[in-house]
């Protein structure tokens, strides 16, 4: 279980102060697979680095399985595995095997068990032939795999994974999803996971928190998030003609909350443009759009489910409104 209470953190660089986290409260239940979602600079990495002790907090409290991270960092280290997208935590001048040996002894794993786990993890990640290669000579994806292996080496109770599949190829990523799901379901490992691949979050996470400008704005399962923003629906339209002209006509309509042009390669005709509209009520928006555009222009219109990307966009819009 991860308990985060009123955590704030700012960075001072010269005369500039960045408030990276402002009073973050987050409760992650034991055995939960929890996604942390937010745009660049939202505060995800700062929060994860605080939880794993790589950064100090300005105020607030973090407890992992009941242990306060500032009072007993050693005890926390043994039950926590983490991987960050920068290479913090990997020794570039050691080879892969030496890195894993070093971390297994740091985490108190016996040499016999460590030997077995190192072989299993290097095998799983397809790194057995590179076990003697210096990490500085690894490719981006190989380093990402080794960071994950390092995070898993001591079978931690809690895993903090910050963009773990960044740089990892599609096929290996699929294997990693299966591995992480298995670890979560069978061993009951608590996982906090960040990613910019929303499909990955949808596929893996039971709960999601949305962080924006250092504050948690919304939290819940994906269906709960959808319900919380249920006043918004999605309508897709296809029109024949010039996209700039259509955007100018659609944007000011009173029932349109947002309009996004979609890039599709399924239309043979060059002058067909597709838009996704966020609206308060799909059926009334559809009838009003049908009234506005004639048959010559309107090629298709249909309602769609709100996806996680819509939830993220709408929530960030609320956050900006509240802050202004
Ligand atoms: N060491 C630092 N010094 C100064 N500012 C920092 C430092 N680390 C982070 N920040 C700032 O804190 C804010 C949050 O950054 P953070 O890295 O936590 O974002 P993030 O959500 O992980 O973004 P991304 O999706 O790009 O990884 C940003 O404004 C960033 O510039
Ligand atoms: Mg980050």
UniProtKB/TrEMBL annotation:
<dbReference type="GO" id="GO:0005524">
    <property type="term" value="F:ATP binding"/>
</dbReference>
<dbReference type="InterPro" id="IPR003593">
    <property type="entry name" value="AAA+_ATPase"/>
</dbReference>
<dbReference type="InterPro" id="IPR050763">
    <property type="entry name" value="ABC_transporter_ATP-binding"/>
</dbReference>
<protein>
    <recommendedName>
        <fullName>ABC transporter domain-containing protein</fullName>
    </recommendedName>
</protein>
<dbReference type="InterPro" id="IPR003439">
    <property type="entry name" value="ABC_transporter-like_ATP-bd"/>
</dbReference>
<dbReference type="GO" id="GO:0016887">
    <property type="term" value="F:ATP hydrolysis activity"/>
</dbReference>
<keyword id="KW-0067">ATP-binding</keyword>
<comment type="similarity">
    <text>Belongs to the ABC transporter superfamily.</text>
</comment>
<keyword id="KW-0547">Nucleotide-binding</keyword>
<keyword id="KW-0813">Transport</keyword>
<dbReference type="Pfam" id="PF00005">
    <property type="entry name" value="ABC_tran"/>
</dbReference>
<dbReference type="InterPro" id="IPR027417">
    <property type="entry name" value="P-loop_NTPase"/>
</dbReference>
<feature type="domain" description="ABC transporter">
    <location>
        <begin position="2"/>
        <end position="238"/>
    </location>
</feature>
């Amino acid at each position: 279980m991860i308990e985060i209470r009123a955590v704030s953190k700012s960075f001072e660089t010269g005369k500039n102060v960045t408030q990276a986290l402002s009073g973050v409260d987050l409760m992650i239940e034991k055995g939960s697979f929890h996604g942390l979602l937010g745009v660049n600079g939202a505060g995800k990495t700062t929060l994860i680095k605080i939880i794993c002790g790589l950064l100090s907090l300005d105020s607030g409290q973090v407890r992992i399985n009941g242990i306060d991270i500032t009072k007993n960092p050693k005890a926390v280290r043994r039950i926590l595995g983490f991987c960050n997208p920068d290479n913090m935590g990997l020794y570039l001048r050691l080879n892969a095997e030496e890195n894993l040996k070093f971390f297994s002894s740091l985490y108190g794993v016996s040499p016999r068990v460590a030997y077995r786990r190192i072989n299993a993890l290097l095998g799983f990640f397809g790194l057995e032939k590179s076990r003697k290669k210096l990490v500085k000579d690894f490719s981006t994806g190989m380093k990402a795999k080794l960071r994950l292996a390092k995070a898993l080496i001591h079978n931690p109770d809690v895993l903090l994974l910050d963009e773990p599949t960044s740089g990892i190829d599609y096929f290996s990523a699929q294997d990693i999803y299966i591995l992480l799901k298995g670890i979560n379901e069978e061993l009951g490992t608590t996982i906090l996971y960040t990613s910019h691949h929303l499909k990955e979050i949808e596929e893996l996470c039971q709960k999601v928190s949305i962080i924006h400008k250092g504050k948690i704005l919304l939290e819940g399962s994906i269906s709960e998030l959808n319900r919380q923003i249920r006043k918004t629906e999605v309508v897709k339209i296809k029109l024949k003609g010039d996209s700039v002209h259509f955007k100018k006509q659609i944007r000011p309509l009173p029932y349109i909350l947002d309009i996004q042009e979609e890039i599709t390669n399924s239309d043979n005709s060059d002058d067909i443009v597709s838009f996704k509209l966020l609206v308060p009520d799909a059926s009334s928006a559809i009838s009003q759009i049908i009234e506005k555009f004639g048959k010559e222009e309107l090629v298709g219109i249909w309602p769609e489910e709100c996806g996680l990307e819509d939830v993220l966009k709408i929530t960030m819009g609320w956050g900006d409104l509240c802050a202004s």
